[in-house]
Amino acid sequence: MKIALVLFCSILLRSSYQQCLTHNDLKPPHPSGRLLLYSGQQEFSLALLQAINKVTPSGNIFFSPYSTYHALLIAYFLSSHHTEKFLRKTLRLDSSQDKADLFSAYKLDRFTTTMRALNSSYEFTNANRIYVAQQIRLRDCVTNVFAEELFQKDFKSNPERARTEINAWVEQHTHDMIKDLLPAGTIDAATNLVLVNAAYFKGQWESKFDPKDTKPEVFFISPSKQIIVDMMHIETGFNYDVSETLMAHILEMPYEGDDISMYILLPPFSKEDGVETVLKRLTLDTFRSVVNESMIARQVKVSLPKFRLEHTVELTPILGTLGVQNFFEQVADFSALTGRRDLSVGAGIHKAKIEINEEGTRAAAATAIFSWRMLSSRPEVPIEFKCDRPFVFVIYNKMMHTILFMGVYRRPE
């Protein structure tokens, strides 16, 4: 059987029978279950970044580890035996939580996230569909668990129509940011299952840039190669630090609401391999030192390119390097859908897009001297944080300790 799996963003569960995906789907959530659900998400995200960077060592990178994590979490709920074991290890799921605990936590997280979105200064939404071929007989309880997400589709007689309808749904739920997610030929008469996950984030900067200050400036792709970009400018108070461990200047740029921030890791201009050095040193411990430890509020003069990035990731080789063995082979066990081991995953695609401008984020100059010491300048003397060279950036939910998006900006597109 050929099955196309599109892993783009989050899948959320709704309800279940007492026993369907686990021995007790209705088990009450653990008091800390929602946070424990994400206890390994940071480590998973960093591993995913390293894996993607290996196949894109010189290009721009942008993806949503949060979405990929959720898509694989659904695969975990639908898996059994060795496939379940591999997915649990890859997702770094908390050892104190069994599948029933995680399933209950997931349902609670889905409800809480939906409710919070109704009264938030930013927009972060998740939408999902599970398309199954009409000829596949599903377990009754699964249709209840995925009541809103599950649709049976006629792939056999009109695969092209199915592909265009799926793409139209993705476009709608990403506010027209993601178009043609499934290229021509990815859906055919042999397709049995397509998992489509879409996420959308729109946040306004807490301190907005003034468009009148945006002007063309040089961006150094390397010390010997430059290009002109639209550079935004602002001077105000930001959390700032210098990490000797990461060999980078660090800036936190919060979005309105203060739940979500963008962290920029800017290497010194004097190092041609600055981004690569930062990535090599970006471990779980060093990342947590950035987002968990108190940064110092300073007056900072920020220069940031106005840019858009769109990146498509072929997940089949990526997930293999992360330890999801046999995930895309016939021996994989996803029997929770049908009660039989007759399904397997054929491929995985992840597509993400981000737009950075003066208002905020829709996801949709040389520094002559670099010092690793904490600067002792007087408060009225602003620090210069000029992103005129490649940098790493992370969009992070401080409330849930989850990495929503990650990117490496190496060159203007």
CATH class of the largest domain: Alpha Beta
**CATH 2nd-level architecture of the largest domain:** 2-Layer Sandwich
How many structural domains does the protein architecture include? 2
In total, the number of strands is 16
Count of helical stretches: 10
* Major sheet: 9 strands, mixed
Instruction: Sum up the overall morphology in one term.
Output: globular
Segments where pLDDT lies below 50 for 5+ residues? 1-17, 364-379
Q: Please tell me how large the radius of gyration is.
A: 22 Å
CATH superfamily (homologous) name of the largest domain: Antithrombin, subunit I, domain 2
Strand content: 25-35%
Write down the secondary-structure element order: EHHEHHHEHEHEEEEEHHEEHEEEEE
Percent in helix = 25-40%
User: Structural class of the secondary structure composition?
Assistant: alpha+beta
Summarize model confidence as the mean pLDDT: 81
Distance between the termini: 39 Å
Q: Which fold does the CATH topology of the largest domain refer to?
A: Antithrombin, Chain I, domain 2
